[in-house]
UniProtKB/TrEMBL annotation:
Native organism: Flavobacterium cauense R2A-7
Protein known as: Acetyltransferase component of pyruvate dehydrogenase complex
Keyword Transferase: yes
A Gene Ontology BP annotation from the UniProt entry: pyruvate decarboxylation to acetyl-CoA
Quaternary context: Forms a 24-polypeptide structural core with octahedral symmetry.
Pfam short name (any one): Biotin_lipoyl
EC number assigned by the record: 2.3.1.12
GO cellular component terms given for this protein: pyruvate dehydrogenase complex
Ranges for domain Peripheral subunit-binding (PSBD): 244-281
UniProt catalytic activity: N(6)-[(R)-dihydrolipoyl]-L-lysyl-[protein] + acetyl-CoA = N(6)-[(R)-S(8)-acetyldihydrolipoyl]-L-lysyl-[protein] + CoA
Domain (Lipoyl-binding): residue spans on this chain: 2-77, 120-195
Cofactor binding note from Swiss-Prot or TrEMBL: Binds 2 lipoyl cofactors covalently.
Known function: The pyruvate dehydrogenase complex catalyzes the overall conversion of pyruvate to acetyl-CoA and CO(2). It contains multiple copies of three enzymatic components: pyruvate dehydrogenase (E1), dihydrolipoamide acetyltransferase (E2) and lipoamide dehydrogenase (E3).
GO molecular function list: dihydrolipoyllysine-residue acetyltransferase activity
Amino acid sequence: MAVVITMPRLSDTMTEGVVATWLKKVGDTVKEGDILAEIETDKATMEFESFNAGTLLHIGIQEGESAPVDSLLAIIGAPGEDISALLSGANASAPKAETAPVAEATTEAPKATVEIPTGVKVVTMPRLSDTMTDGTVATWLKKVGDTVKEGDILAEIETDKATMEFESFNAGTLLYIGVSEGQTAPVDSILAIIGPAGTDVSGIAANFTANGSVEAPKAAASVEVKTETTAAPVQTTNAGGRIFASPLAKKIAQDKGIDLSQVKGSGENGRIVKGDVEGFTPQAAATQTVSAPAATTTAPVVKPFVPAGEKFQEEIKNSQMRKTIARRLAESKFTAPHYYLTIEVAMDEAMKSRAVINTVPDTKVSFNDMVVKACAMALKKHPQVNSQWREDAMIINHHVNIGVAVAVEDGLVVPVLNFTDQMSLTQIGAAVKDLAGKAKNKKLTPAEMEGSTFTVSNLGMFGIQSFTSIINQPNSAILSVGAIEEKPVVRNGQIVVGNTMTVTLACDHRTVDGATGAQFLQTLRQYLENPVTMLA
């Protein structure tokens, strides 16, 4: 049966999108996970993948054209299938009835079965990244009964890539919460209902549940949600209440050892933000009265005692990020024919050059920054390594956007340095530091993780001598960087003490042949062993 694909909401503020490029044409076979098109949002140009398999039967928005979110983008079905009814429905005044797989962020989905009272808006779980299929509510910043203004932050939502603030596009009273804090729900599930105070919305919530858009327990728990959220005080200094703070503020407070219950928030509803923590001066008098709750929130989890000889298992729920990492790495490993090339690089000159560079005031360059710079310059000389595989063509990227793998609590993210070859070492160092900080605080935006053409993964700081990585598709290669080791080496026929580093290039054999990968590594070694050539 044919499926209608609508213009997705690829960012929290996106209202319309422009089709930059179609990667499939009418008549092409589409597999689940194939990239259908590149869509330009209000923030970035992002790849949009298909969640359906079949044949592309119709394209509703041509390249260069813009259309509102939820407009008819394409139709996928069986070869030769009659789609005239879908096309006529899409041209009708209420096209949303034909797009059941995608619910609008307001009230269109339930119109077919429930009459929506005037002024009531249904808010659904947004798609905050191009790969997001589920979202977890990390924090509600509003509770049932609160007044909501257009632009207010409703909640912080954890996607497969980051924790992002979700703002309201509607004004009114928060009448219903469909997904409690810590719960996960699919994109387009009912998240909340906003409308005039006192409006009965129980029928709307129940209908969404009946249609399978949200899990049944959530509708039954609506009264409990209301009780739970109204009990949480907005005063951040209440010793017995929950503390409202942004994830970044919490992280900074934890790093500095600051008791958040002592901090007065300047954000909405007294919410603590970054500036409040950075400008906080501890008061000794308040420490005795409010330190106990902070200790309970920041203390490490104590593992249960397990007597010797007894089995014990612990189940940890997979985060959205962990699920996406598992899916994408499995796809890469089992679709791209990986092979590996390893070389040893003499790092003595690089160590001397770094020491000199870092004597400049306010300058801090790491060995990883030097590797990233060397990779960028080597990729300009060997653009085939900077490529992507498609079934119909090989894409050679003549711009260099290097992704730098960063380990975070839930897994691994890859922020991207755009036009890395045009950046100096100090610019690379500052950019990597900034993006790594955002990654650890879950503040990376989708735009900051899109568009890489090559990836660097460095485990040298953990003492790992060498390792191999799985290619970060759609890239064709990834460089694994090991630790710098001091050991005996042969120089000019003499055994001397030298510093070496092992790097391994994982390549997709569909795009990068062995000789091409080897030539890239030779160029990379020349830059690292003679760092002055990177400054020319």
